[in-house]
Amino acid sequence: MRIAMLGTRGVPAAYGGFETAVEEIGSRLAARGHEVTVYGDRTHPHVTEHLGMRVVHLPAVPVKQLETLSRSGFAALRTLAGARPDAAFVFNAANAPYVSLLRARGIPVAVHVDGLEWRRAKWGGAGRAYYRWAEAHAVRTADALIADAPGIAEYYALEFGAQTELIRYGAPVLQRCSTAPLTALGLEPEGFHVAVARFEPENHVLEIVEGYRASDARLPLAVVGSAPYSADYTRAVHAAAAGDDRIRLLGGVWDQALLDALYAHAYTYLHGHSVGGTNPSLLRAMGAGTATIAFDVGFNREVLADDAWCFADAAQLATALHEAEADEPLVIARGLRARERAARVFRWDDVAEEYERLAQGLAAGASIHARSRSARRTVQNAR
């Protein structure tokens, strides 16, 4: 089959969960003999083929509100201009306006709807209204909807009565990982806590730093992340960390060997994400065999099978850190169970097989469009 993948920054993966998913899924589909084209940005302009996938680079408007939408618009136009794909996977419900264009050319489209983006504080009233509209438009125009977590599938069922394909992310499982990259940071294996997240309110980086600072933790905290569009929030995080030598703000880390070492050799991983579905950062920590202290929402509890410490505010995080540092055997046991669950439940081979099955169904004419094209939010959830 010809398969198009659009709506992300593309491959090689160097940014977030969607890009990693495209790389992992697309490369496996290519290995199975499919012709996979990935549309993305101009980060790697000289890469035209990657792991068997054809790579197409596109411009974008470098403004928070328009970057994804503009890049995806160019990707849709390029898709329309080329050989017609047998199936297209569009990542991010924000790109829903282009689904009708693709379907008008006879291209069946599945939309990976992601998390509840409209709940993010970085979007103002217009941005949140747009994301809610885009969710509804994706339901009414797509041939299939992909949810990466049971909570997302339940949301679309309750909000719109819409059927989704539940296809999880995969987790990279690390059995052995060098400690050498930690040396330059002055970190000891199993001798630090780590948090990895973009600096956004919904990822609770500020609460993590405040809770850690208020705690009696012996082990230092390494914080990986940045915020391209949130200067005020970044300043608040830095202010909260100022004067506490235990807190190391590392900024964005793009060296995969260093990231792997941070995940694999941390004493615990602090996970503050609250509005996504199955989060890739959490899966990386699980696959690395690291125990987690997670923000207390259903998405995180489900992924972790409730085998973790949870917190809802800075004070609860301080308590969780105290409990974790006081019980090393439990930390080790939870880390081992997390890795076993990651290897058993979150397998990229299984994910790619589900995408292939869905693409085959779409190419054969399977579609929810007839049932969902008139869908509306239920009255109690209309606001």
Automatic annotation (TrEMBL):
It comes from the Bacteria. Keywords: Glycosyltransferase, Transferase. Residues 16-165 form the Glycosyltransferase subfamily 4-like N-terminal domain. GO terms for molecular function: glycosyltransferase activity. This is Glycosyl transferase.
